[in-house]
Amino acid sequence: MQHIVTGGNPDIVGHLTAGALARAALTHEVVTSARAALDAVRRRASALLILVADTPDLDGLEVCRELRRHEELAACRVMLVVTGAASRSLLEQMAAAGCDDFVVLPSGGPELCTHVEDLLELPRRRHHRVPVELLAWVEAGARVFQGQTENLSLNGAKVRLDTPLGSVDWVRVRLRREDHQQFMAVDARVVWQREGGRELGLTFIDQTPETRRQLEALVLWDLVEEEGLVRVYLEGDFVETTDLQPLAQRLGPRVDFDAAGVRHVNSHGARRWAALLETIAEQHEYTFSRCSTAFTTQACFLVGFLGRGRMVSFMAPYHCDGCDRDETRLLQAAALVPEGAGFVLPRFRCPQCGGSLRFDEIPERYLACLSPPRLP
Q1: How many other C-beta atoms lie within 10 A of the C-beta of residue 189?
Q2: Which of 130, 163, 355, 357 could form a disulfide with 222 if both were Cys (CB 3.0 to 4.6 A apart)?
Q3: What is the C-alpha to C-alpha distance for residues 215 and 219, in angstroms, rounded to an integer?
Q4: How far apart are CA 297 and CA 53, in angstroms?
Q5: Does the model's pTM come out above 0.85?
Q6: In sequence order, which ranges of the chain are alpha helices (DSSP H)?
Q7: Model pLDDT, residue 374
Q8: Over the chain (376 residues), what is each successive 10-residue block's mean pLDDT?
Q9: Centroid of chain to Cα 244
Q10: What pLDDT does 330 receive?
């Protein structure tokens, strides 16, 4: 079980003790001084230290420097928290101190979760589970069990059956919307059973390209309401068959599009996406967060892909020349320091060799979408 040490910042503590991180196999300890932070890391062989970058009583930069001076503590990853505007000087100090990552507050729970998952090399939740009511037929040999899905993702489903399944490890699942005649079929492994075999957790296996396409059409998006904000989780490919119009009817005055699950966007899908944004009322606000590299690339090249919206955070490619390691890092727009016509980009410590991870794209091209929105 991995141990995390943090300062007492309520935003960080709140996110660590709720949502996906609360369900992970992690322990958590709060400290109030630099000495206590170092003692906690040494005592528990802690995996991650999260501290505010520069405060009088608990200076995260100084603690990070001290950790890097001790070989026995080098395995501990350090994420610093920036509570104000980032500056070139601060970025350089964090890189020189051996900082592994940093986050600018305020930051949403999904963003912080992604930072922690990457630093601790936890399995990142690639696919958001969508509550979809589908008729389901579970075939186990010659027996067929009828029921309904309660949620669905690209790699699995939760199914409630009318009658208990019994002791079965592998099944074939047929899914169909109540208002459709056609169904799709996929093989699955039974991961867990509850309520005497009436409730199943399934992981899909051996998906064909056609099966994948059909699943993506079912779980293309999901909406979650969060304190006056509608967060839209986007999944799969944006292509010529993508139907986004039903989504337009569900959006509120404040929307955040979470694009971490967007895998591919072709020219037809990009036009369909831009058309969706054009339907959003002018007085409504919308942002884009955790944008995948596929989504970010289209945003940089296609005028109107972000509409009137603003990109809050995005996945960025990094590379270490010392050990030839490639990583994808989540960067916040607030973490970039404007300089001239471009930005100063953060550098990070390579976890493999201790060298420097540097941005591995052409900044003027990859970051073009961070300039003021370009409208047709």
Answers
A1: 13
A2: 130
A3: 6
A4: 31
A5: no
A6: 10-16, 19-23, 34-44, 60-68, 88-97, 109-119, 209-218, 245-248, 267-278, 293-301, 363-366
A7: 40
A8: 85 74 79 87 90 79 90 89 87 92 83 87 60 77 89 85 91 81 87 92 90 78 85 87 82 93 91 93 94 94 91 94 94 88 88 91 88 44
A9: 21
A10: 93
pLDDT at 375: 39
pLDDT of residue 373: 40
Ramachandran angles phi, psi of 89, nearest 5°: -60, -45
The structural domains of the chain, ordered by start, are 2-119 (3.40.50.2300), 135-213 (2.40.10.220), 219-370 (3.30.750.24)
Pairing of strands 77-82, 101-104: parallel
Give the gyration radius of the chain's Cα atoms.
23
How far is CA 118 from each of CA 9, 95, 124, 125, 216, rounded to the nearest angstrom?
21, 18, 7, 11, 25
Token readout for 336 is 């970039």
Tokens representing 88 are 């070139």
Instruction: Give me the pLDDT at residue 129, please.
Output: 54
Q: Which residue, 251, 228, 363, 255, is CA-closest to 312? A: 255
User: How many residues in the chain?
Assistant: 376
